[in-house]
Structures are given as C-alpha cells and as structure tokens.
Design a protein that fits this description.
The chain is of the alpha/beta class. Helix content is about 35%, strand content about 20%. The protein has two domains: about 220 residues, Rossmann fold (3-Layer(aba) Sandwich), CATH 3.40.50; about 160 residues, Glycogen Phosphorylase B (Rossmann fold).
Amino acid sequence: MPDDSIHLRPPAFDRPASKASAGALSLADVPVPEELLLVAQSYWPEPAGSAPMMTDLATAFAAAGAETTVLTARPNYPGNTVYDGYADGSQDSRTVDGVLIERLHTIPPAGGGMKARLIHEGVLHAGFAAARARGRVGRHAAVLSLCPSILSVAIANRFKAPGGRHVAIVHDIQSGLAGALGMGGKAAVKAIRAMERAALNRADAIVVLSEPMRGVLEELGVTRPIHVIPPHVDADAVYPLPRPDQPPTALYSGAFARKQGLEQVLDMAGHLAALMPQARIKLRGQGGLEEELKSRARAMGLGNVIFQPLAPKDQLNEAMAEGDVHLVPQRPEGAAFAMPGKAVTILAAGRPFVSTCLPGSALATLEAQVGAFLCTPPEEPRAMAEAVASLLSDPARATAMGRRGRAWVEANATRAVALDRYARLLLGDAA
C-alpha cells in the first residue's frame, strides 16, 4: 500500500469529457407522444432516490416536444418534513424546464415504519384521485407511473384516455422489500403483493431496471409485457473530471435509509483504517438514519469517516469527482427487489465503485457484463475494505474500470437512449 504522502492521480480521459460520444442518439432524434402525464410520489427538487431519474425523464420528454405534466407530492424525501417554501401550497402548480408540475399535500413518513409509509402514501394518493375527479389533471393518451408507490400505478389508470397507453415503471418491488426488511407482518406483505399483481396487470406495459426484477414480478403473477430498461443519467451533466488534490477517498452519496445497509460501510471503515491509514471515507446524504449512523461512527472512533450533506444538483459532477472509489452498499435480502440508480451515475462519472451484493443480483449481473466495479459479499466488511483499498492503491486499474463504465453508459443509459425506449412503449412500438 502507498504511504501517507501519496495522493493518487488517475490519468486523464483521452476524449473531451463534457459530452457524450459523437454520433450518439440525441433527444431531437426521438419521436414522442404529443402529451404525457407522469404520476410519481418523488420528483425534483428531491436529490436522492427515484426523483433525479424521473426528473431527467420528464424533462427529456419535454425537450423532445411532448407536452409534459407531472403529478407528484410536495417534496420531502429523504427527510421527514416538507421542504421550506412548499408546505403552504404556493408552489403546487408550477412549470419548470418545460414540465408542468402539479403537487399534492402529503404527510412525510417520520421513522420509516410501515404505518408511517401507509399514511404518507394514502394521503397523497387520495389527493391524486381527487385531482382527477375535480378535473385538475385530465386524461392523457400517454401515462407513465412510478413504483414506489404501487398506489401511483393503480391511480395512474384513471388518468389514461380511451385508446391510450399506460406504462408502469417499477424501481422498487414493495412487497419484496417489505418482507425482506421486516416492515410489516405477513398479512401486510400478502396484501401489498396482491395490490402489486392487480395494479401491474392493468398497465399496458411494465418497465423494470434489471432481469432479476423481471423474474420476481413474473413469480408474483404479473402477466403484462415486462421490459428491462436500466437506470439512466444525463451523461452531458455527469462526466469524468480529474480528481481534486486530496487524500485517497471512498465516497457514498445518497439516502441514509435502512435498505442501503450503511452499517456495513462503518464496519468497513475500521478495516480500511488498518489497511490504508491515509484513506478517508465521505458519507454524503440525509435521511432517517443520519443521527444513528453519526452516533455509531463516534462510538467506534472512526476518525477516517466524514459526514457531509448532499451536494446541490448544479455541483453534482464536481462532487462525484471527489470519490476515487464510490460505495454502493445494499442489504442483501432486498437486492433482488431494487436496482440502485446511483450506480449508473457513478459509471457516468468515470469512477469505479464497490458494492455489497449476492451472486445473481442485479448489480452482480451488471458487474459481469461491464467490468467497471467490484462486488463483495454482504456483511463481510473486511472483504469490502480490501476491495476499496485495492482500487485506491491502483489508479491505472481504477481508471480503466472508469472508462468501461462510461462507455457502457453512453451505449445503454443516456437520457436519449432511455427516452427512445420509453417513447416506443408509450407509442405502442417494441422497446
């Protein structure tokens, strides 16, 4: 391992970093529906979870010429309060980046338990139903809905015009996550499973983020066509930058929530301190577990761990560059039911990452295809620390992995590629 005086400097990328490759598909090339409604509980300015991806998708449709409306909640994620300036409803109807955003009242889920989540989703989706009944938002020929929440998928059918198409996007399989993470009893999980099966089988098509997620839905009894479209990213806004002058740094950025399994990162930090004393770990985010994680880090005496808030969107690219290696921890029991969108953002930034995942999971499958990151067994913090240290101490290898990741994003996960596939589904073509 290098000594304390070494600051790793991966070689610069050969091509101009700020744009996708010449000849790549552009938004202007994509035929889109004349109008589109997107029904989702999370949207801009929420900085984590599904919101960034759905914001990119909506603004891409608008930029390509679709009259785009989003029906969503007043922003609150990943915290447990509505953002300043939104609680009074003064911004409940607003156009941003060509997208008309219609927001509804909700009660953010303090604590993250099943009861709090049900109240949050129930209040919000009752508002969605009222918005349809009162004509605030009319029927559309093209409708996209997002799970979570499955209630968004169920309610979205009411907004579909006769002869229109509704495509449901499944980012999280809620029954699987609830059962795997111990949220609610068997009866609650069974009820969610039945709701998922009924709601999804009323959609015209379904999109999941990985092949393992497709298999879970098929086992659930979903019979509608299921298409795999990976998470996407604005590859013109997130691109490889030179690393700043700093100690070797591993970075986690995102929600501080139970399903991320962030306790694994704290355990890993202790091993990394022994393997590579000069390295540091940045944990950027917010959420229900923030104080618990900070308290645990203090109790463990982790001097190599730094907590920071999430970077503003206009500073995201520079913030991503601060990680020589990124961290994508997951709770193993929930990995089959979700695909972390942050993984694709990291690849777009030309950085490798280390994930905790089981063989056959979505990330393990992607790692075998792309070779741009490392997978380690869940709940084995020393193995994770060794993987992180191996990349921090070998900048040439890390850079080569970053190149492969960036190339995969440009071919499979740009805004234009995703827009084309979603538009085809909404127009009734094969994706």
